Write the structure tokens for this entry.
Amino acid sequence: MPDPRYATPEYRAAYKAARQAQARGQWLECHQPACLMDDRTIAPDQPVDIAHDDSGTVILGPAHRYCNRADGGRRRHLLAATTSSVRRRVL
Ligand SMILES: [Zn+2]
């Protein structure tokens, strides 16, 4: 099932705008709060994602795909840690 965060008209519009800007040869800026690259510029030939805030509901803007996916992975990891500690308390 697709992630509902990526199925909103806002997300689609932001992604399309970013891709169109890249198609025109424009450089974008990474909006991920914790950018993992050397600088925040996104070259026209670099994979781009659209970053969300931590709640997953507010679109921040274009981000390096690498930064965006890494952040999501950390969040999933945190969630898993929280879930297992809750389970231990229940037992
Ligand atoms: Zn970045």
The chain has one domain: 4-90. The beta strands are 28-29, 41-42, 48-52, 59-64. The two ends are 32 Å apart (CA to CA).
